[in-house]
Amino acid sequence: MSSNRISAKKYKWGLDFPVRKTGNQDVLSPPGFNPSVSQSSVETSKENDPSHLIIKKAWDLALAPLKQVPMNLFIMYMAGNSISIFPIMMVGMLLVRPIKALFTLQSTFKMIEGHHAFMQKFVYFLGNIVGMLLALYKCQSMGLLPSHSSDWLAFIDPPVRLEYSGGGMSLI
Amino acid sequence: MMTKGRIMFVLPLQVFFIFLGIITGSNCIYEDQVGKFDWHQSYIGALKFAYGDASGKRGIVATESNVVAALNLKTGNILWRQILEKEPLGKILYLSPSSGSEAVVVSGGSKPLVRAFDTINGALGFEWPLPGELNLDKVIWAISTDKLYAVSVNNGVDFVVNQFSLRSGSQTGKWQHNAPWAHKSKCVISRDLVICYSGKEIHSVRFSQKDAKAFTLELHQQIVNIRSVKSGEKPGVFLDFAENGSEQSHQVVLLPEQGQSIVKCKLMPYSAHWVLSDPNHEAVSVVQLILKNKVLEVVTTDCMSGKKIEESSSAFPFTISASLPQLEDVICGSRNDLSLCRLLVHTEEESIALLHSSGKQLWVREESLASISVVEMMDLPVSDKDAAIEKEFDNKEAGLLGMFGRRLVSQTLQFQQLLQTVFGISDPIQPAGQRTDLVRDDFGLHKMIVVATKAGKLFGLDNLNGEIVWQKMLTNVDTSSMQLFVQRTTRHGPYPAQCSLLLKDKVSNESVLYTFDPITGVGLKKNLGYRVLQAMLLSVMDEESLRPILLLDSEEKVYIEPQTAISLADSFAASTYMYVANTDTGIMNGYTLAQSTGERLVASKVWDVVFNPETQTLVNIVGKSPQERVHSQGRVLGDRSVLYKYVNPNLIAVVTQGTDPLHKYVLNVYLLDAVSGAVIFSISHKRAREPIHLVHTENWVVYTYFSEKWRRTEITAIELYEGKTQSNSGAFSSLLSPVNPLVERQSYILPAMVQSMTPTVTEKGITSRHLLVGLASGAVLELPWMFVDPRRPVTVTPEMREEGVIPYMPELPIPTESIINYNKSLPQINGIHAAPSGLESTSLVLVYGLDLFYTRVAPSKTFDVLKEDFDPFLISMVLVGLGLASYTTKRLASRKALKQAWK
Amino acid sequence: MIRSNHPYFAFVLLSICSTLVLGDRYDFEIDGTIIVRLRHYLSDDGNPEDRGNLTIQSIRTGSVALSQAIIKPHHLTRLKALAKNDQLYRMQATVVTSSNKVVEFLTFMKACALVESGFSDVLTVNLDHSGGVIAISASAPYGICQGAPIPPDEKLRFFNTTIVVRHMDNGPVPDTATYIQKMERERDARERGDQKDNRSFIAKYWMYIVPLLIFVLLSSAGQPEGAPAAAR
């Protein structure tokens, strides 16, 4: 805007010669046109520009579940294998959190704009899967998974009798 | 911190498990629950001797069940009851009042005991053993003036009189009377006379005098029977003469006492039962009992003239028994007037009754309930309303319109019933004499207990209070080997339930089948005309939902009852097997019906097992209940693998008592497959002997025996497993690919004498099983099976602990909380019957023996029943209140928010 | 096909394999031999035919000798007919004990199971506490009777019989001795358990301290990476 004003003044004064090289320069830039926009695209590669921050944030987000793994391992160790209310609550949390996270994957990454979040999404997904696997392992070691034959025992029907017998001591 | 806590728990865990076991085992009730779920009835057994005591308030009785008791003559209740020892020691030989107010009882085998019980409180007055040896078969007992006499009759020679002092027990004299006419079965004692008959003559001797002379009286007819006169002033006898033509005559002869004359009453057409004499008038009258067309006539006649005395004769309907009751005593007030007397009678059906001479039945005691041999608990039928609903959903092929019509009809009926109950109009179509409350309840807790007694009497008892609903006497039957079959339960629509009782005819020894409706007792007796060796229910039902009975007779022919089911039986013949064991020969035979044709069932022998009678005798065979259901097919181990149970429905446990030159007694238990005849497992206990009680269900066998070596009762449990894999999970065949099961076994000490043992039964077999053990002390112990588990280890590994096995302890505890009959001791327990109820948690139990005791047990606690203190009203009120409160607060909050928004 | 000139009367000693079910078995005071004559029924009615002889040489050790006849072709056809009709193959065993007592036993199995298994059957001889025979039962453990192919006739010439002699097991007795020992051991352990645990704090609880340390290290290791990011 300021340069436009300056050029208008130039017409009054007519001192600025080198600017008047071409004839079609008379057309004014439309209001709101900012010729420096092209320059800003160059600046994205710089360290502290917002796009870089977003990628960084996305990676942070993607790696968060994996970073939780040691903590989860520790909680799992502390919870022990006995079945009581607190270990169950802990294991439940361990299991439910990644599942919830997976379901809300799209909304989590919505704030990160752009098409390049695929890698992060994948890592995030992997991290949550690892968390889930850990929780399942914990369930298994606590004996909560129906992985043994004994867990299906109640559903076995009694075998059908093929022969029938009866009798006893002589009644005579 | 948490893990540290866990470690600290490990040590007391064992103690904890034991504690847990005891807690789960206890089924004790609170004081206010006494009599709520249980009832107890006391009996005395079949009457042997009885008399009314001097006060006229008590009847003193001695019974076949070795019981001496006093009955309240007003109500028939037991005032006191003394239970003597088991036979032969407790067998009562004689009962008589002493000169004081004591009842003197002679009981015992070769060495009799003389005891006196106070008639008022039953306290033991004195007790002494009879010195010397007596042949009790020959002895007639008598008491006279504080002396006890044992008169041994040597048939055709003499009788030897042993005189004892009643109080001290010392022998005060012994003498003999020559009596070539004496014969034990033809002699009676009346007062202090021995009176015998031979041919036409009666002879009498005063046995209490050393050198008394015999007295002979010749009568004009052949005598066939003699009974002593117990009443009146004079000794005497009732005589039955031989039949003269078609008529039989009877006479009463009273013999002289110190210079009096003989009284010979006039001949009578009916036998006399009692003598009434008036000391003032010297007049003697005779009482006769005559039963004609269910009317009992009490006829009093004058002795000399034979004329009927109308004012003291009566006739009244008599329904207790079909046969003439036996008159035990006539209990009169102060005056000897028969119209004020009461008659104590007992019948062939083992009932004791007190009749007023006017014909009023004062009370009846059904004493045959003290000798129950088979028990079954039957569901009650559904009410008419429920039956209509059931019917509505029963017929599925009726088509849409038909079903709609039926629904309309049933709902109109229901509406009509509703109107009737609302307006208080009672249902007019109610069959008279039938109880209306005998319908199935929601939880199946109300049942009919059907019992058959050794006297041949059948009863239907209401299980809630023990009341007799119906009774039926079967006459002329031998009840030594009774079998009760439930052919149809009440769950089969319009058809009534049906049971059959297999007995034998007393005379011909041929089998008799009594088929009856267990709810009403109405039935039909059928003489089969052959002798049944063994019988079983067919595994399938016919088109009327009836299970036919297969009968194998002594000539190995097979019959079926009802006979119309023969084609049905034939179609299942190839898979039906029967076995019969003979105790005398020790041979067990297995039969198959595979060779049957459509018209005829044929049993052919396919296997036999021989227990050589020289080395062992068959004691007992216990099969599994055919209705048994096993819910869990395996047992979960500590590592969460499964040990599959070996559940062979054809498995039978055979107990034999062997003899051995070294160990004296050997107890053998064989587990046999009743189809293939294969011995699956056999075990032998050295120096162990009877009594043996065995329980066989699911995949285990538990038995108790007496260890001669340690002189204690031991209990052994055997458990059979297929292993970690199931050979064929779909079907079980005894013939194809038989498996050799793994056997676990363990023994324990049971610090009590066992009388009877049975497992609890529940409908689906989900609830854990307990053993109900009747003890000689009169207690019924509920012993969790967990305690006799053969897998109880001495040293507990963590895996075992995970499995929940209690560590091994050689002696089983008998905690008083586990006694299901709390303080109501049950003498002479003969058996325990457990039946499932509609609730899976609850098992109904009837303990029978001398007494009846009924209760419920819940082995895994009543997990399917709300607690008694559960208050649905309070809870619903709280819920409604909370709902209202939340609604109003919501409204208030929204209003407040609106106001705030306007500010 | 079996050659027709085969001498039928020749007995072939087929198997001396015997299994004695060991374990906590009953000991007999006396030893003896038992001779068993085996005969089998080849139809539902009719007389039994000879099958062979079995001698239990010692009831204590369970050593047996068995000689069985070759199955004649016409017997084979009859056996096959039994199998085809799903009938029962019955066998009679006549036992002569050492005291010259004769006892007869009957046993059976499904004929189809026997033929399907190629005549590999198992004969179980059950003895009681005095060494007497109480039952001889036959079974064909490999036959399943569900239409399995019948082996060719060449393989159906002999019985391949296994003999099992089963003694009774000894009944268990309440194990008081071990229990008392255990109680004593426990009491001793309790007395010893009163002594102080002299290990140092670290030696006792290292298994809790090490994970805690690792945890602390891990969380602090993540810090330098996160801290600058948070600062910006």
TrEMBL record, chain A:
<keyword id="KW-0472">Membrane</keyword>
<keyword id="KW-1133">Transmembrane helix</keyword>
<feature type="transmembrane region" description="Helical">
    <location>
        <begin position="117"/>
        <end position="137"/>
    </location>
</feature>
<dbReference type="Pfam" id="PF06417">
    <property type="entry name" value="EMC4"/>
</dbReference>
<dbReference type="InterPro" id="IPR009445">
    <property type="entry name" value="TMEM85/Emc4"/>
</dbReference>
<dbReference type="GO" id="GO:0005789">
    <property type="term" value="C:endoplasmic reticulum membrane"/>
</dbReference>
<feature type="transmembrane region" description="Helical">
    <location>
        <begin position="74"/>
        <end position="96"/>
    </location>
</feature>
<comment type="subunit">
    <text>Component of the ER membrane protein complex (EMC).</text>
</comment>
<comment type="similarity">
    <text>Belongs to the EMC4 family.</text>
</comment>
<protein>
    <recommendedName>
        <fullName>ER membrane protein complex subunit 4</fullName>
    </recommendedName>
</protein>
<keyword id="KW-0812">Transmembrane</keyword>
<keyword id="KW-0256">Endoplasmic reticulum</keyword>
<feature type="region of interest" description="Disordered">
    <location>
        <begin position="23"/>
        <end position="45"/>
    </location>
</feature>
UniProtKB/TrEMBL annotation, chain B:
<dbReference type="Pfam" id="PF25293">
    <property type="entry name" value="Beta-prop_EMC1_N"/>
</dbReference>
<dbReference type="GO" id="GO:0034975">
    <property type="term" value="P:protein folding in endoplasmic reticulum"/>
</dbReference>
<comment type="similarity">
    <text>Belongs to the EMC1 family.</text>
</comment>
<dbReference type="InterPro" id="IPR026895">
    <property type="entry name" value="EMC1"/>
</dbReference>
<feature type="domain" description="EMC1 first beta-propeller">
    <location>
        <begin position="144"/>
        <end position="367"/>
    </location>
</feature>
<dbReference type="InterPro" id="IPR015943">
    <property type="entry name" value="WD40/YVTN_repeat-like_dom_sf"/>
</dbReference>
<keyword id="KW-0256">Endoplasmic reticulum</keyword>
<feature type="signal peptide">
    <location>
        <begin position="1"/>
        <end position="28"/>
    </location>
</feature>
<comment type="subunit">
    <text>Component of the ER membrane protein complex (EMC).</text>
</comment>
<dbReference type="Pfam" id="PF07774">
    <property type="entry name" value="EMC1_C"/>
</dbReference>
<keyword id="KW-1133">Transmembrane helix</keyword>
<keyword id="KW-0325">Glycoprotein</keyword>
<dbReference type="InterPro" id="IPR058545">
    <property type="entry name" value="Beta-prop_EMC1_1st"/>
</dbReference>
<keyword id="KW-0732">Signal</keyword>
<dbReference type="GO" id="GO:0072546">
    <property type="term" value="C:EMC complex"/>
</dbReference>
From TrEMBL, chain C:
<keyword id="KW-0472">Membrane</keyword>
<keyword id="KW-1133">Transmembrane helix</keyword>
<dbReference type="GO" id="GO:0072546">
    <property type="term" value="C:EMC complex"/>
</dbReference>
<feature type="transmembrane region" description="Helical">
    <location>
        <begin position="205"/>
        <end position="222"/>
    </location>
</feature>
<keyword id="KW-0732">Signal</keyword>
<comment type="similarity">
    <text>Belongs to the EMC10 family.</text>
</comment>
<dbReference type="Pfam" id="PF21203">
    <property type="entry name" value="ECM10"/>
</dbReference>
<keyword id="KW-0256">Endoplasmic reticulum</keyword>
<protein>
    <recommendedName>
        <fullName>ER membrane protein complex subunit 10</fullName>
    </recommendedName>
</protein>
<feature type="signal peptide">
    <location>
        <begin position="1"/>
        <end position="23"/>
    </location>
</feature>
<keyword id="KW-0812">Transmembrane</keyword>
